[in-house]
Fold this protein.
Amino acid sequence: MQTIYNLFRDNIRQYGMIIALVLITGLFWILTDGINFTPLNLTNLILQNGFILVLAVGMVLVIITGNIDLSVGSVVAVIGAIAGVLIINMGVPVWIAVILSLLAGALIGVWQGFWVAYVGVPSFIVTLGGMLIFRGLTLWLLDGKSLAPFPDSFQKISGGFIPNIGGGDIHLLTIGLAIILSLALVWIEFRKRSQQLQHQLDVLPLWVSLLKLAILISVINYFMYQLALNKGLPTVLVIVIGLIIIYTFIMNNTVMGRHVYATGGNRKAADLSGIKTKRVVFWVFVNNGLLAALAGLMFAARLNSATPAAGNMLELDAIAAVFIGGASMAGGVGTVIGAIVGGLVMGVMNNGMSLIGIGIDWQQTIKGFVLLAAVAFDVYTKNKR
Amino acid sequence: MSENYILEMQNITKEFPGVKALDHVNFKVKKGDIHSLVGENGAGKSTLMKVLSGVYPYGTYDGQILFNGKVSEFKDIKQSEELGIVIIHQELALSPYLSIAENIFLGNERQSKNIIKWRQTYQEAEKLLKRVGLTDSPETIVSEIGVGKQQLVEIAKALSKDVKLLILDEPTAALNENDSENLLNLLLELKKQGISSILISHKLNEVTQVSDSITILRDGQTIETLNTSETEISEDRIIKGMVGRELTSRFPDRNPKIGDIVFEVKNWNVYHPQQSDRKMIDNASLFVRKGEIVGIAGLMGAGRTELAMSIFGKSYGKKITGELWKDGQRVEFNTVSDAIQAGVVYATEDRKTYGLNLIDDVKHNITLANLKRITSRNVISKNKEITAADKSRKEFNIKTPSIDQLVGNLSGGNQQKVVLSKWIFTDPDVLILDEPTRGIDVGAKFEIYTQINKLAEQGLAVIVISSELPEVIGLSDRIYTMSEGKITQEVTKENATQETLMKYMTAKGMGENANNL
């Protein structure tokens, strides 16, 4: 029992967030008479929030280093504009335009990372400048007008689904992937247990592991089954899951990830441990530029146009997602999964409130309170310890 | 009887959990005197002054304070300042981007109905500046004047509060020869105006130069009060009172097996990172042999940490010159990782600010400086990490419920063991430890000493920086003393007594050179 208690106490923030997500989802399930759980709506939820989740993944790294990036909304816009000009005006092949757009995003990251890491201008200022600069460049590129439409192949980035092999009513590849994912989770959990036993560490009781797996697998399978009843697994979800897996691995298992946490946790100590913290901050910004570019492409593809107002205020959604997901303003704390859960909390609320007809005015207000409550809870539990 | 005394502190006892910082201290200052308070680091000088100024409010200590013959029970600094007791700390408390005049009247503004009267502010500031011998305009921004002048502004600020008793904590530590001389002359000048002062200083030549009386504290007790008006007091006489601390910590036995020279520093010079004309380390040379423990003894401000950090990948200072030799070869450490790779590592004196990531767990802290050892193709092997951290935990006897515990939740002694583990994990040849037992209880100290001895036995060259003389003497095979940025002497274990060391630690390091500045 002790280990379970410890497990809960040490992860209260993470579990608290997941519990909150479940409660909020449940609340809207009741309020919408279950409409939010229909296959169509679940698909929509993903399509609507995919780019915010991508932004949140990039943003959480920036925030862990103790910085902030206010420019990602404008970067989303300028990348959409670049893609629009390249593809629609200049007729560049889609795949080349995509690569060039991603490169442009990385270059923006290089620019901002240089000022923050090597010159030492506070990231708040650098990216506030960036927010204006890239919004202005968007207006200039688009001449203040929208560009549309994109070719079908480009729209697939955001609106596509994985192919339906077999072609029946139920999307078989989606079901297949659900089963593979479930098996992978079982394998990972049991490998972890055997390694913990091997190193004589505390191991969770078997029934806890099994219960955890049972809940996770039924949620995943239910979710995937619902998607399979609609059009199958959206490309966006494949991208997001891919990013979650890659970035969770980087943050937990690689030297780079460890250096990011160390830099944010205590920069002076990291310096005196031989970590090149300037380089770390620089690359985190480059990475964020790249991911913001990816989000920009997804956004443009979903809208099927490049517009001057694209991505307005998106940076605030991404930052809110990261803080709801348990990151600390002071740096050193935060997880990719947390940011994703935070993003989903925001997404489920947006979606649910729209379904029951709450206006945009109250939606904003309620989201503001949720952000405040989540972080206040965080501060409260930390002080209590 | 109290007619002559402006201040009488009687039987002051102040306890912190587990430590008696002050033990029945008696301290009296005569009206119009300059009274010096001397003692080693940790002798209780600062604590005594905090009791006096109300930082530790009445009720948290035992004993009685009489000011001008009246019993005083200060609840905070404001109350003591109202009576004219003003303390000037070693770290100046000026607001750097406000003007001199604004700083002088900070919290005490010349105003009517919350509107500042600027003309009165500047006029009065000008008068005060004249009294301390400053000719700068009161509108000058504080960050634009040097430390010496800032010190004088602090005194002007004290004068604005109608000071009766001025307390100066290490006022000349950051000053050069000229500024120090100025400041001391100012103290003598104020004395003529009837202002009494308490001077806390490590620089015994200054103490003997200006004091009327000298009180020596040691281990939280008053040792003696010397009166300089009757007989001349020599520096040696003061040192005799300061040292002779009881050996409260025992030291583990050891048979040193000393080999060849592993690491050598030659003619090392370092300048202050901001004040580029201020020399922090002056021509320091030292070496350490395999299996040897070398002590560097110096009081606060002697440049010990600056020396070590400038060696460790130029982490401190500017315009660094000199040579480093490792295993007979000339080396150059431009970054911290250069030094770590060459096997020279430095464990900081301030583990919370510079040593550890307190919001991360024990295992991540231990492996951070040498992730390579548990990594293949940039991927960290968690199993190797757990095994390694567990091994360190057992080896250094780190008391923690698990290696997943956050370092911030551990006690000071155990945090220090994590720091040691971290640097040993980099497999060094030379280990520089800066105040390795600061803020640690006696039991944990003994454990750290045992570990240090064990490491030396395994062939490491260890440099221990410490201001605690018993510690330096108990641990070291050979000792360098430092004072004012210079290595003043090399003392063998056989010749190392607390008195000889203290003499060299308070010697005027910059001696002849100072005149050329």
In short: The two ends of chain A are 21 Å apart (CA to CA). The mean pLDDT of chain A is 89.
